Amino acid sequence: MSPTLMILAAVYGVAAGVLLPRPVHRLSVEPDHDRRTDCPRGHPLTGPAHGWLGTARCRPCGAAYGPGTATTAAVTALVCAALAAATGPRPELAAWLLMAPVAVLLAAVDLRVRRLPDALTAALAALAAAGLGAAALLGGAAGSWRRAVLGGLLLGGCYLLLYVAHPNGIGLGDAKLAVGLGTALGWYGWHTLLVGAAAGIGLGALRGCWLLLAGRRREAMPLGPYLIAGALCGLLPAAAAAA
C-alpha cells in the first residue's frame, strides 16, 4: 500500500467527483425524454463541452441542482483511494480509476430516476475492455484480458436471461451494466466474478427485504447501485490478493 498513490488517487477522485452533479442532473430524465438542457428554473446550461462541464449551480438565478458536490466528490475520492490501496502501482489501476467516476455517475442517475442510460453503460464497458487491454500489454499486470472480456459477456448474458425471465425484477439497463462490471471482475478470475456478482445480488436482496418489512413493497428499487457496490466488494480483495 502506497500512501502517496492513495492520496493522488483521492485527489483525482475529488476532481472527477466535483464535475459529476451537472451530468447527473442532465441525464436524470425519464426514458422517453431527452437529456436536460436547462436548470430547474429553465435557464439554459452553458459552459465547456456543450454545457456538460461546470458547476451544478445556475449563474443567472443561482439555483443549485443535481446531487451535492461534496457528496459526489467524497464518494468518488473514497472509491479511487480504495482501488489504489488494493491494486498498488500495477497497470490495471489506470482502468479502475477511469471507470470509477462513470460508475458513481451511473449509480447517482439510477438512484434518481431508476434507469441506467445506455451511453453510460456502454462507456463503462468500453473503458473496462480498452483499459484492461492496454494494461495487459504492459508488464506487471495481474490479470487476464481474455478472461475479462469473457467475464463481461458471461455476466451480461446471465442478466439478460434474468431480464427475459422476469422483466419486472431485472431491468435491461442492469444487463448492460453487467457487461462492464463482469469485465472488471473477470480480470482477476472466475472466483472474483462469482463473488462480485453474488455480492451485488445480495445487497439488492437486502434492500428489497427492508422495503418489504417497511411496508414499501410497491416502491421501485434501483438495482444498479447495488450491483456496482457488489462488484467493488469483489474487486478490492481480489486486487489486494494479486499484490
TrEMBL record:
GO molecular function annotation: aspartic-type endopeptidase activity
Q: What is this enzyme's EC?
A: 3.4.23.43
Prepilin type IV endopeptidase peptidase domain ranges (all copies): 98-198
| Any single Pfam family the record assigns to this protein | Peptidase_A24
- Residues that span the membrane, as ranges: 64-86, 93-113, 119-141, 148-165, 185-213, 225-242
Question: Organism's domain of life?
Answer: Bacteria
Q: What class of enzyme is it?
A: hydrolase
- Give the keywords, sorted: Hydrolase, Membrane, Transmembrane, Transmembrane helix
The chain's coiled-coil residues are none
- Family membership: Belongs to the peptidase A24 family.
Name recorded for this polypeptide:
Prepilin peptidase
